[in-house]
Amino acid sequence: MVVPGKPDWSWLREAMTAPIVSMDTYLEMPEELSRTIEVVDGMIVHCESPSQNHQGIQQALVNALGEAARKLDRRSGTCHRARGDLDVLLAEVPFHFKRPDVVLYRCLPDDRSGRWSGKPMAGDVLIVVEIVSQHSISADTAEKRIEYAAAGIPHYWIVRMAQEDGPAVSVERLRLTSDRQYALEQVTFRGRDHLAIDIIDPLELTLSWE
Q1: How far apart are CA 172 and CA 165, in angstroms?
Q2: Rounded distance, CA 44 to CA 18, Å?
Q3: How far is CA 156 from its chain centroid?
Q4: Which tens digit of pLDDT belongs to each residue from 37-95?
Q5: pTM of structure
Q6: Residue 48: other Cβ atoms inside 10 A
Q7: Which distant-in-sequence residues (6+ apart) come within 8 Å of 208 by Cβ?
Q8: Among the listed residues 84, 88, 92, the one whose alpha carbon sits nearest the alpha carbon of residue 64
Q9: Is 134 exposed, middle or buried (0-12, 13-18, 19+ CB in 10 A)?
Q10: Are the C-beta atoms of residues 161 and 60 closer than 8 Å to each other?
Q11: Which end of the chain has fewer surrounding CB within 10 Å, N or C?
């Protein structure tokens, strides 16, 4: 009951009693709803719409990683895909998936069965990239660092934007250690380093700040 003259906190009470979401529930959701959330240990986390600058950086990384992956595949006979905003399963019970800004993963086998057969699991993923924005600072720099490491994803890159919504100003590359923690591999900064990314492992990629 809402008392006149007092704040209505019913929305918070409803949020605190939100049901635990299973994979079955998620897979039954309409796409316009499911694509706006992530699920962490069964609890829904709403995802904010990215800004134009965020989308521009994301698309540039998808294109660059995709081209680098094609070169790697031609040379080594492997198969990889680079995608943006693609669900990655970290755990089925409790249900836990993330939608990285960019993900590079091994091509999924045609004969894979199961409820998550059309999307990558953590074991398929080589690189995840998160682009830090105003509403995702803690999640991208701390929480996801722990979650992706625990899931065994070998490489995690964190891209920061000027004032959290401008051009890319730094790229932090982390590599998974044997004890499933990320160690800093390199940080590049706009204005100090000529290239944003210049690597040969796990694939060859050179990317300017522009």
Answers
A1: 17
A2: 8
A3: 9
A4: 999 999 988 888 899 999 999 999 999 999 999 999 999 999 999 999 999 999 999 99
A5: 0.89
A6: 11
A7: 194, 195, 196
A8: 84
A9: exposed
A10: no
A11: N
